[in-house]
Structures are given as C-alpha cells and as structure tokens.
Amino acid sequence: KSADRSVNYLLEKTRDKGLETVWERSERQQPRCGFGESGVCCRICYMGPCRIVASGRGRRIGVCGAKAENIVARNFARMIAAGAAAHGDHGREAAKTLLEAAKNPASGYSIKDANKLNKVASVLGVETKDREKEAIAAEVAERALRNFGQQEGEVSFIRLAPETRQALWRHLNIIPRGIDREIVEMMHRTNMGVDHDHQNIMLQAARTALADGWGGSMMATELQDILFGTPSPLRGQVNLGVLSEKDVNIVVHGHEPALSEMLVLAAQDKQLIDLAKSKGAQGINLAGICCTANEILLRHGLPIAGNVLQQELAVSTGAVEAMIVDVQCIMPSLPDISKCFHTKLITTSSKAVIEGAKHFKFSEKNALQTAKEIVKEAIANFPNRGKVDIPREKMDLVAGFSHEAINYMLGGKFRESYIPLNDNVINGRIKGVAAVVGCSNPKVIHDQCHVSLVEELIANDILVVQTGCSAIACAKAGFLTPEFAEKHAGKGLAEVCKAVGMPPVLHSGSCVDNSRVLIALSEMVKVGGLGKDISELPVAGAAPEWMSEKAIAIGQYFVSSGVFTIFGVGLPVKGSEIFCQHIFEEFENIFGGMWAVEPEPRKMAAMIIDHI
Q1: Which of 313, 428, 466, 468 has a beta carbon 3.0–4.6 Å from 511's, enabling a disulfide?
Q2: Which tens digit of pLDDT belongs to each residue from 498-513?
Q3: Can you tell me the distance from the alpha carbon of 608 to that of 606, in angstroms, rounded to the nearest whole number?
C-alpha cells in the first residue's frame, strides 16, 4: 500500500487487530462512481441529481438543460472556491493573531521578524518610519483583514507579481477585488440557473484562485513569518520512528500554527517537563502530522511523524498520549481508532468539532494558557499507556527554504539575489525548476508517485521545490539532504548543490506556502535573462497524489499565473471533451499556463521535462 516500510508494517498490525484505516475504507468504495470521477454528476439543485454522458445514446443533458461542459465547469469551479475558502480562512486567522500580538502583550505572541514586517508593510502601504513595531503590526493586520471584505479595487499582494502578468490579468478582468468577494461570486455563478458558459465560469474560477494564491495563502505565509519567524535552513527528522518510547508523545495535526507555536513553548516549560517526569516519563516529545508538522519543523526543527495518510497509524503505535487537531485534512475516523488505544483526541477550533473528541476552546487571547492545559492533559494520560509498537524508520532532512533563505543562500548577506539561480539555468547546469506539492491519496501507492517523480526530475538537472505532504514523502525517502545530490542528481544540478551546500529538493513549507513559490518565480522574472513573465520561465508545477479541493485551487492559481501544472491520480473533468480541451489546450493561449493530467509518475516527469 505504501512506498514507506513503516506504513506497511503498521497496516499489517492494524489488520491483525481487526482495526480499520483509510486504506480499508478506500478499498470498500470500489468500484467508484464513474459519473463522479468524470465530473458529470450534478447535485446543485434537487431536480436531480443528474448523471449525464457527453455522447452516445445516454442522457446528454441534465433536467435543467445543462450540458456536460457546464456541469464539469461548475463542479470544478466549486472545488476551487472551497479550496480558496480554506486557505482564505487560514490567512484571516493569521491576521487576527497578528493583531492580537500587536495589541495584547499578555497573549504570548510577539513580532519575531521585524524585517519581514517592514517588507509587508510597504506592500500594504503602511508607514514605518519612526514607529514602534507593534503599531506597524496592528495597521498591517487591519489592512490585511480589509482584503477579505473589500468589494472593489485589488487585493494587495497582486502587486508582487511581474508587471507583464498583472497587465494580462487586468486585460482579462480577473484580478481579485476581495478574497471573500470572489469566493461568494463563484458560488453564486455556479448556482442553478446562473452562468452556463464554461469559459466564463473558468475566468471567474481563475479570479477566485488568484484570491487564494496571491491573497489568502500569501497573507497566511507572510503574516506567520512576521509572527513566528521566517524559516531558514535547519536539520530535523521525519517518519513514525520519531515517536519516543520514554517521553510523553504529543502529536499536532492540521494547518494553523497559532496553536502549535504555543504548544512548542508549553512543551519546553520546566514545570510541565517536571510534571511529565513525575508520571514516569523522561520528558515531552512534540511531533507533527501534515502541514502543522511542516510549520513546527521549519521554525523549530521539531520532528515530523508523517503526512496526512499516517494520522491513524501514529495512533496505532500506542505511543501517542494526545493528538491535537485544528482544521483541514483531519479524518473523522480518529476518535474510533483512538478508543482502541489510550490516545486522547483533542479538537481546538470551533470550525472543526469532531464527535467523540475532547474540545478545548482555543483563542488568541489566552493561547499559551490553553496550550499548557492541553499538555497537562497529555501528561496525565501517560500512565495509561499500554504496549507500544513504534516502527524504526526515521530519516534526517534539511528544511526551511523560504524565499528569503534561498535569496541569502545564493548570494550571501550583502548581495542576496536570484542571479546565481538564473545564471545556472542560462548556462545549462540547471535545466529548470519544478514545484512538486500536494496531498497523499489511498487510490495510489502511498508516497510512490511523489518519490518517483522527484527522483526522475533531479536526475535530469531540474531543481525541485516542495511543500505539504509531498515534501514529507520525499523527506522520508532521504531526498532532503545535501548528500543526496551527489548520488542521485544530474551532473549540473549536483555541481550547484555542492557549491551552495543545499539539497536538490528544497522544502519550503506547508500548503499555504506555495505562495512562496509564486514570489520566487516573480523574483526570477525580475532578475532577468529568462523572460518577461512567469509563463516564459522554464518551470512547472505538479501534484502527484492530490485529493483535497485546496489542491485544485492551488493548481488553478499556478496555471493562472502562467505555470504548466500537471496532476496525478486523475481529474474530475473527463466527462466533457469540450471542457478538457479548454483547460488542457486553450488555457495556454489565455494564461500562458495550462492544466495536464497523468497518473504515471515517469510519464509525468517526461511531460515536465519536455515542457521545460
């Protein structure tokens, strides 16, 4: 089921015990509904549901008269709206936390990166001269929050894109006015009886996706850097072997680091460590699952227990005293498997309450105190631990390659620049750059598509940037160490990696941190020598094992920014040849970037290499 031996080992153990995981539930869904997989099942009104076929003797239009291309476009656009809403809500919470840090010193939050604060302030038009950083931060947060509700104008971070790209977006009239504004309009247009032109629907889908990539996601990334520090390269460890037999194990899972940052502080509190020792433990071990794991890794070097499909398996080790979750990618099966062990499942967001879990109401106003109460709950559970079975697998990695870190790494403190990267692309040592991102999906062998694709790309001198669960997959395979370049990268890429001291695969953060990729691509355009727009750069994007609506939103904002973007597993669009032609071919003439789909990772790599 997985390219990861620790996963296969624990799956065998859970099956022996009669326990159910995501893999068993996936198998039971076979055969899957072909209408749903093709995108031609419409549930938007209750004259249906309608299931149609594009040709032949079947039902070729829905009850309302909608054709296949209309139905596929509406379903696809609604996925983009949902993904943009998830990332937008994340950005909003980051802005609220920054405002709390600026106005309430007792909250436990503070401004960790004043340079980033000043940089973001200039983008938002906030005056910084002769002002305290807290005053600047408060105004930055307030202006950031305005980006959500504003009805006219342009979202602020759009101005970081290349001028050529901004001009194209204005010509197409798809620059987002406000983040929430575009999501609401997308939902309205796809309601029954509104927009029936698939091309027009997809223009608004592009606008909605840009409100994510250059809005909600970018806001989340930039403001979290101000609050918690901008990542720079550091070493860490990954996989289920990071769990400890002797410590209290607390696993954080989800996406918003406002809580996990406080848990980091709480887990280092001497009184709480002493309390853990009084219960028979040696100390407190904080590890992560999914994107929260990436957040605490990039800023603190704390270990990652695994990616999204490993959440149930972490509990099945019997070594986790508490799993703390906030929002997104959290399986509602967790309470059931937790009951079979001693693990306490704790929810913290009012947006994500799970039946069978204990809820701690989390607020930015008393964050540290709440975090300490949660840690105490985990410590109190340590004596209830039964038999522990932790796989041995764990791997070293280097992560923390933010845009700023790459700038410094390439040029040094006084001449930080992307010029060396562009020069090495121009002279042929590096053929191009690929962003390989996204989720894990039980429809395919876990981790294998990520690992096989990236292995092929770096062997062909393509530098890979990663985020999210994809980065965790390749980290477990050992790709995120400088030593890996010598053995597995092409000659040119290996030479550059050795000179700089970097891995051939750069871990840049969580799924909202794909916005770092957009800024990096804009910087490559600004430096010059490779083209006047992102669409002219030798770059590509890929999500080999995607499953979340957030991934579709990311894919659309990459495409709308001019990037050739390929997804594995499949896309729910094949029910309409007309729609497929639009996003797989016509998009390139509109945006300079387009979608592609290819489940087989070697073929996916070949398409990326050919494009570059």
Answers
A1: 468
A2: 998 999 999 999 999 9
A3: 5
